[in-house]
């Protein structure tokens, strides 16, 4: 053997080794991959011969992963997982016009979904699968072509990103709640149940401080993971919440939520479209990116 192939053992031997590591023995590994115990043993022996080092200690009829085997497994298993994911991505794509995009749940429901018919009209062959994700991830380990991120650029290093827009969060409550609990000035909120979104628990303290209210003794209120859950709790009379106005436009127009104080809260954080560096090209990702940026300019 010469060239890079000398570092590529037979895949069946690697599969047997991985199963044996996970199950701690050859018998159950064989059951999983459809081989007899002796066949698994032969595959492991072939791999050990290839590597010129034992990977398991044989103790009677039992086997135990040794130090060399453990080190090899630590390097190999993540690589096999990456290979499976790459194969799944390649086989799952129905065409060269398919994309998989991760989006923040509330953003996807309230900003992205209503605009998708315009994207379809412009690019009828473009197929996009959306999935909800709230935190940055490694594109090398996930089956996504792009993602929508809220934060600052430094939150997600090593990727390309396009600025979309900033948001303004406004205090909102149910009109019936407001009638029963009049709010005449921002300081009155210190006596109200203040609802929060779990990743922005400091938002009320920042809003009150900006309004000239001492928030040092502010007690934490209920928190919700997604903004639309927060909006529902607020509309049901749970208290007052700070929610980005673009996410609750339907509730504001319908009157199920009202704004007691026209004092929006803004920050340096913003929405970004994120994708692997160098992945843009001229294909479907570029089409989606151009459309997203255009839509955001008019947001």
UniProtKB/TrEMBL annotation:
Residues 9-66 form the HTH lysR-type domain. Coiled coil: none annotated. GO terms for molecular function: DNA-binding transcription factor activity; sequence-specific DNA binding. Keywords: DNA-binding, Transcription, Transcription regulation. InterPro entries: LysR-type_TF_proteobact-type, LysR_HTH_N, LysR_subst-bd, WH-like_DNA-bd_sf, WH_DNA-bd_sf. Signal peptide: none annotated. One of its GO terms (biological process) is DNA-templated transcription. Belongs to the LysR transcriptional regulatory family. PANTHER family: GLYCINE CLEAVAGE SYSTEM TRANSCRIPTIONAL ACTIVATOR, HTH-TYPE TRANSCRIPTIONAL REGULATOR. NCBIfam families: PRK11139.1 (NF008352). This is Transcriptional regulator GcvA. It comes from Sphingobium psychrophilum.
């Amino acid at each position: 053997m010469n060239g890079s192939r000398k570092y590529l053992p037979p895949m069946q031997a690697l599969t047997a080794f991985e199963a044996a590591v996970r199950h701690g023995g050859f018998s159950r590994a064989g059951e999983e991959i459809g081989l007899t115990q002796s066949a698994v043993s032969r595959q492991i022996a072939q791999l050990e011969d290839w590597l010129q080092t034992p990977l398991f200690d044989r103790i009677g009829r039992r086997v135990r992963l040794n130090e060399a085997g453990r080190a090899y497994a630590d390097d190999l298993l993540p690589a096999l997982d990456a290979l499976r994911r790459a194969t799944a991505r390649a086989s799952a794509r129905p065409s060269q016009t398919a994309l998989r995009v991760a989006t923040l749940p509330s953003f996807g429901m309230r900003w992205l979904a209503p605009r998708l018919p315009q994207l379809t009209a412009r690019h009828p062959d473009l197929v996009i699968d959306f999935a909800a994700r709230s935190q940055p991830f490694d594109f090398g380990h996930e089956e996504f072509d792009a993602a929508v991120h809220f934060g600052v650029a430094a939150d997600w290093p090593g990727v390309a990103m396009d600025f979309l827009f900033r948001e303004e969060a406004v205090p909102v409550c149910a009109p019936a709640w407001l009638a029963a609990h009049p709010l005449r000035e921002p300081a009155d909120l210190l006596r109200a149940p203040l609802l929060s979104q779990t990743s922005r628990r400091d938002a009320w303290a920042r809003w009150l401080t900006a309004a000239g209210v001492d928030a040092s003794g502010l007690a934490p209120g209920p928190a919700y993971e997604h903004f639309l859950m927060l909006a529902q709790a607020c509309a049901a009379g749970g208290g007052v919440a700070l929610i980005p106005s673009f996410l609750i436009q339907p509730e504001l127009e319908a009157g199920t939520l009202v704004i007691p104080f026209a004092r929006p809260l803004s920050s340096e954080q913003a929405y970004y479209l994120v994708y692997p560096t160098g992945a843009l090209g001229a294909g479907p990702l570029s089409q989606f990116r151009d459309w997203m940026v255009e839509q955001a300019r008019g947001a």
